[in-house]
Amino acid sequence: MSRPGFVVLPDLPAAAGIRRPWPGAQVHAHASGRPWLVGRWRRAEVAVGTAGPVRLAVIGSSPVTAVRLGELAARVSSLSDVGRVAAALTGSFHLVATVDGAVRVQGTATGLRRVFYCRTDGVPVAADRADLLADLLESSVDEEVLAARVACGLQLPPPLNERPLYAKVSAVPPGDCLVWTDGRAQVKPWWRPPAARESLARGAEGVRAALAETVHSGQVSADLSGGLDSTSLCFLAARENPELLTFRWAEAETGNDDAEFAARSIAALDRAEHLIVPQHELPAVFADPDRPVDADEPYAFTRSAARIRYSAETLAARGSELHLAGHGGDELFSPLPGYLHQLLRRRPVTALSHVRAHAALRRWPLFGTMAGLLRPGTVAGWWRQQAEHLSDPVGSARRPVLGWGVAPLRAQPWVTADGRDMARKVLHRTANEAQPLGRDPGEHQAMLVLRSAAAQYRLTAGLYADAGVELRLPFFDDRVVEAVLRVRRHEHADARRYKPLLAEAMRGIVPDVVLGRATKGEFGADIREGLRRNQTAILRLFEDSALAARGLLDPDRLRAAVRSPQRDYRVVAALEPLIGCERWLRAADRPAPRRLDALAP
C-alpha cells in the first residue's frame, strides 16, 4: 500500500491536461468544479469547509471539524484572510485554501508538514511530497544537493537540508506559503517567531495550555521512555485517556537510568496499560540496512529504522490508532547558547553568570567563548567558512556553539574529491542565498535545530503510517513552539537546571521525582552491539553502491573506516545518513516510473 499524500491543482482549464485518472484517489473540487485536492488520506486526516466560492482544507492532525471550517470560510474574502484562519487552529496540518480561483498552500512553521511545487506544461502544481512532483516531471536527481547530503550528513542545516533532491522541484520554506493567482506562483511569509518577552512562570502556563490542546481522546498510545519529554505527554494524555497504552524499549546499557524513572511513572499511571519490549525481542540497531525506503528524501535515522517499524506494527496490533512521542523536546526546551549574544548586550552581569555556567559544564575555553560572543559574524560568513574548511579534520567537541550554525560541516574520508568539490559549490551558493531564521543568533539557533529535526521526524511519521498508526509529535506543533519561543531564552536556558520551562509547565501533572531528573539515557551499548551484528550487511549494501557509481563515494575508504578497531563514534554517526543516502538513491533511480496513481490504495 502506498503512503498517504496529496497534490494541489490550480483552478485553470489547463490543469485538466495534467490530471490522470488516479484510481481510488479522493478528490475535492474548486467552486468551479475543477479538481483542487487529489490524494489519499485517512478520513480523520482531512476536513473541508465551504462558504460560497471559498474552500478551506485542513489535512493532518487537528480537532477542527468541517462545520467549524465552514464558519471560518465564511469570514474569508481573500487569501490574505487565510492567515487568521491558520492562527485560530491547533494541531499539525497542511492548510489549503481556494478563494475565487486563487489558491494558497502552507505547511507548518517547523517543517514537519512540507510544501513542494513545480510547473508542468505551464501549469503550477503543489504537493506534500517532493517525489510525487518528481514522478510527474520524470525528474532526475540533483547531484549537487545529493553530494552535500553525502558530504555533510545529518549536520547539514537549513536551508540546504530542506532543498529537494530532485531537479525542477522547488520547496516552500517552513513558515512561508505558496500562493497562486491567475496561474502565477509566489512564495510569501506567513509566520515568524514571536518575540521572547514572557517570564518563565507566565510562559510555563502558556506551554501547559498549548500542550493540553494537542492531546485527544481515542485509541491512543504514547512513548514512556522515562525522559521528561515523553513522560510529560503520557501524563497529559492520561487525563483524557485514563486507560492509555504506554510503550517503551528496554535498554541494553546498564548505566541507563531511564528504566528507573519510567518505573516511577508507571506506578503513578495505575489505570494505564504498559507495554515494555525486552531487548531480545527488538531488532538490532542497524538491522535490515538494505530494506527499500520511501523515495521522498533520504532518511538519516537508519540505525533505528527497523526498531521503529517493529514498534509501529506492535502498536497497530494492540489497536493503537494514534501514537504520541516526545521527539522535538530536546530541541525545543534546551536552547543553544546563541542567546548569550543578546543577553550580553542587554544584561551583561546575567550573561557573564550564564557564560561561566556553560563553560564549566561543557569545558569551553573562556577566551574562545568571549571571542565568539564579541564577533558573531554573519549567516553568509558561516556558510562560506564551512565550504572553505569542508575537508579539514573534525575539531574539538568542546568548541563553543555560539554562531549561526550548530556543528561544523566536515566531509568524512570516504567522500570522493569530486563529491567534496560539488558539495563545496553548493555551500558557497547557499552562502549567497541563506537568510537568518530569527532576529538574533539565539532565535536563529532555536529555529535551526527545530527545522533540522523536523526534516527527519517527518519521515519517521511515514514509518508509522505504513503500519496504519498516526505519529503525533506535539513538540513540533506551531502553537506549542510559539508558546515556548515567547519565553525569555535565558530564563529557560539555565545550564544549571534541566529543561526548567517544561518542568514548570508540568508541575502538578508529572511526579516531582521525574521533574527533578537531571540525567539523560545512554544507548552506547545498543549501538555497539547493533553495529557488530550488522557490519557485514552494511558493507554488503555498498558493494554495488549507487553513490559510488555517481562518483560520490569511495567504497574502499568506507570499508576501512567501518572495520577499524579504533572506530570513532563520529564515524558511526556519519554512517547513519550515508546509509540513508544510498538507500534513497536506489529508490529514486529505480527504472519503473511511480507516477501519481501511486496515491491509490
From TrEMBL:
It is an enzyme of class 6 (ligase). Pathway: Amino-acid biosynthesis; L-asparagine biosynthesis; L-asparagine from L-aspartate (L-Gln route): step 1/1. Keywords: Amino-acid biosynthesis, Asparagine biosynthesis. Residues 210-586 form the Asparagine synthetase domain. The keyword Amino-acid biosynthesis applies. Its EC number is 6.3.5.4. It catalyses: L-aspartate + L-glutamine + ATP + H2O = L-asparagine + L-glutamate + AMP + diphosphate + H(+). InterPro entries: Asn_synthase, ASN_synthetase/amidase, Ntn_hydrolases_N, Rossmann-like_a/b/a_fold. This is asparagine synthase (glutamine-hydrolyzing). It comes from Amycolatopsis albidoflavus. The lineage of its organism: Bacteria, Bacillati, Actinomycetota, Actinomycetes, Pseudonocardiales.
